[in-house]
Each structure stands twice: as structure tokens, then as C-alpha cells.
Specification:
three-stranded antiparallel sheet; single chain; 45% strand; Type 1 dockerin domain; 11 strands
Length: 201
């Protein structure tokens, strides 16, 4: 299923301008209370890139928030350097709406660019640095993917696999199986799933 897109941002890159590869970095991540904290670093003789980001995609793939900061630059006083950073987020199939929170801004920081391709959101930063300098780039986005109600594993159908996932998550909080987003997986979510039951593909 092809992803269609609606964007609320003046910093959107066209899909054809989306970088095809991501930046090779060493990442460290931990997940606590449904929120994943990720730190990445790329340190080489020509430049340094450091990124810190948080999101809740480990537990909620259809509606989630992602925000982060990328700091990049170099320390060579007599050097002109072009530095890029690209990071991609996998999305489930469906219609995608991305909302940019314009109130999220850090002093002396610049917004990142971002773009959408089928089932992928890409965050991109590019800058030219003259002399010893570092700059920071920020993002805070809410992503909404319109997938079939009850399709917990996002495979395009509502069936026994989804039912098993819901039962396994019964009574838990901050879960993808929380179909009505009331904070807990319960009988209301089961009713939604059964009301949208479909035959296998």
C-alpha cells in the first residue's frame, strides 16, 4: 500500500530530494516507560556529529512523537567543511500526516529538513562550516498514520494475530494495542478489534 502524505511544514523536502542513505553512526539507546532515548556520535578527523533524540515508537507506531537535536561541526581553524546528517524512521503503511511543533526551539538552533517516502520519514541536516565552529539543529514532530482500526501489527488485515497481540497486552499502558488511546488495553479495545475483523489477505 502506497503511503500518501499531508505535511504541516515549510521545511519539507520533496520525496525526490530525500537522501537515499542514512548517516553511519554509533547509536546507543534505552527504552524506559515506553519512551526510547537515543544518542549517536560520529567522530572522525574531518568533523564531529552528535545527536540526541527521544520518541515512543517502540510502543506506538501509528501515532507517535519524535524530537531531537543534532550538533555538528569541526575544530580546524583554516578548514571549510560540508557536513550532512540523515536519519530515517520506518512507518507502517497508510496515509501519513506530520505536524511540526513550531514552539519547540532552542537558542541558536536551526530546524532540520524532513521528507516522506512510502513507509519512511527522513530527517536531514546539511551545513557548510568555515573554521572552528559547531551548530545545532532541532526537530519536534508528531506523526499520525491512518491504519485500519484494530490492525495492531499493521499488516493490512485485522485477524487472529492482532487478537493475540491485544490479549498479550491486556491491562498494560502506553501500548499500540490501546486502540481507543484511553491509556489502557481493555474491553473497549477488544470491541474495536472485533468490529473491524477482516478475512486474511
Amino acid at each position: 500500500m502506497m503511503t500518501t502524505t499531508t505535511i504541516c511544514s515549510y521545511l519539507l523536502l520533496f520525496a525526490g530530494d530525500c537522501p537515499s542513505s542514512v548517516t553511519n553512526m554509533t547509536y546507543t539507546e534505552i527504552t524506559k516507560n515506553g519512551i526510547t532515548y537515543t544518542t549517536g556520535i560520529q567522530d572522525n578527523p574531518s568533523h564531529t556529529v552528535i545527536t540526541n533524540q527521544i520518541d515512543n515508537r517502540k510502543t506506538a507506531t501509528s501515532v507517535f512523537d519524535t524530537q531531537g537535536t543534532v550538533t555538528m561541526g569541526h575544530i580546524d581553524v583554516f578548514k571549510l567543511n560540508h557536513i550532512e546528517y540523515t536519519y530515517s524512521i520506518d512507518l507502517p503503511p497508510g496515509e501519513v500526516v506530520v505536524y511540526q511543533h513550531d514552539d519547540f526551539y532552542t537558542y541558536n538552533s536551526t530546524w532540520v529538513d524532513y521528507c516522506l517516502k512510502p513507509q519512511k520519514l527522513t530527517i536531514h541536516v546539511s551545513g557548510v562550516f568555515w573554521g572552528a565552529m559547531f551548530r545545532s539543529f532541532v526537530w519536534r514532530l508528531s506523526v499520525f498514520v491512518d491504519t485500519p482500526d484494530g490492525d495492531i501489527n499493521n499488516d493490512g488485515v485485522v485477524n487472529g494475530v492482532d487478537l493475540g497481540l491485544l490479549i498479550n497486552e491486556w491491562g498494560t499502558e502506553n501500548s499500540q494495542a490501546d486502540l481507543d488511546s484511553n491509556g489502557i488495553v481493555d474491553s473497549v479495545d477488544l470491541h474495536i478489534l472485533l468490529a473491524n475483523w477482516s478475512n486474511g489477505a
